[in-house]
Amino acid sequence: MTTANLLDFDLDGLAAFCEQLGEKRFRATQLFQWIHQRGVADFAAMSDLAKSLRGKLAGAATVQPLTVLSEQASADGTIKWLFDVGAGNAIETVFIPEDDRATLCISSQAGCAVGCRFCSTGHQGFSRNLSTGEIVGQLWYAEHTLRARGMARADGSERVISNVVMMGMGEPLQNYAALLPALRVMLDDHAYGLSRRRVTVSTSGMVRMIDRLANDCPVALAVSLHAPNDALRDQLVPLNRKDGLESLLQACRRYLEFAPRDFITFEYCMLDGVNDSPAQARELLALVQGNPATRIACKFNLIPFNPFPESGLSCSPRENVLAFAEVLRSAGIVTTVRKTRGVDIAAACGQLAGEVQDRTRVRERIARRVVPIHAAGGGAAPMAPVAAQRERA
Ligand code: SF4
């Protein structure tokens, strides 16, 4: 038997593993609690496990933490870790403390193959999917490291992290096989016990996988929208050429059938002269509210763009962001403007870069696509000269 990393298992997976060792499910539950609730990696220290089981585990399993390459702390309390995931790749994880919550932003892939124009991870290319253990390992490390530093929450809870967002490096729904058990670990009362609404999966819009997530584990869903029409979204989020806006919005509606009291959070990165006009805000409204029968329960999160040179884009002026928000709010849609956190340590949205050994041509493809996107005077979205063939199935 090869040595198993127990961070790779949700509780059912761990029970199956224990069964192979001739152990009952309740032993798996105890082991799961030791690992995730208490942060213990050394089987010898798991004092209420039978000695015989500890002996078996010592030969067959490990709890393999990620290797920390660096930790940076921002003046605003944000912490960013860089973890080594082998073969020259490193991923980033960000802890964002606020008054009423403490959020961990987790990576799902080393790099990303989607290649969104405004995202620095996307510009780095793609190396590989993370394993479940590498996804869970980010939470395991952050929770237990911060707990050991005495950073308990103000509400008296022993736990430090109250919310998880799958918004770090990577498109989580492109790594679904590893993501699903990781989500189950986050939600499990014998592990981190996070409620379904406190775990958010953010996607650039993989329609088929949104449907699978709805069936398997309908946690909170955030969709990176960034444009009010297909022509512009094709340029900003290349995945849109496969699954256009209409099918994406239909998937959002279907998702809410599985999570009826929820809403979809639409993420919208504010790009100067590209997607930030009041006319485009009205176009968005028509998309999500146009027809009462197909209206989507949603909120908008406007994200000030964090510029980086390769993008050829710049951040919307604050007055444009506020005017855009006002159009949405005046139609009754809850709209927030994301506070920019951790900019001094490059931990803000779209800034995560890690180290990626690009094994694809993604980086090249993006470099070819980076042409100016100019503003048109209101109305329809401005177009860059990209001969994007729609690839819808
Ligand atoms: S925004 Fe998300 S999906 Fe798009 S390139 Fe960046 S990490 Fe990938």
Structure notes:
This protein has 11 helices and 14 strands. The two termini are 43 Å apart. The chain is globular and about 70 Å long. It is α/β, with parallel strands linked by helices. It is 32% helix and 17% strand. The strands form 3 sheets. The protein has a 10-stranded mixed sheet. Strands 1-2 form a two-stranded parallel ribbon. The protein has a two-stranded antiparallel ribbon with strand order 7-8. It folds into 2 domains: 4-62, DNA polymerase, domain 1, CATH 1.10.150.530; 67-369, Alpha-Beta Barrel (TIM Barrel). Residues 112, 114-116, 119, 121-122, 169-171, 204, 224 line the site of iron/sulfur cluster. Iron/sulfur cluster binds at residues 112, 114-116, 119, 121-122, 169-171, 204, 224.
What's the layout of helices and strands?
Layout: E1 4-5, H1 11-20, H2 25-37, H3 51-60, E2 61-62, E3 67-73, E4 79-84, E5 90-97, E6 102-105, E7 109-111, E8 126-129, H4 132-148, E9 163-166, H5 176-187, E10 199-203, H6 207-216, E11 220-224, H7 230-236, H8 245-258, E12 264-270, H9 278-289, E13 298-304, H10 318-330, E14 335-337, H11 362-369
Parallel strand pairs: 1-2, 6-9, 9-10, 10-11, 11-12, 12-13, 13-14
Antiparallel strand pairs: 3-4, 4-5, 5-6, 7-8
Helix pairs in contact: 1-2, 4-5, 6-8, 9-10
In short:
With 393 residues, this protein is of the alpha/beta class. It has helices at residues 11-20, 25-37, 51-60, 132-148, 176-187, 207-216, 230-236, 245-258, 278-289, 318-330, 362-369; strands at residues 4-5, 61-62, 67-73, 79-84, 90-97, 102-105, 109-111, 126-129, 163-166, 199-203, 220-224, 264-270, 298-304, 335-337.
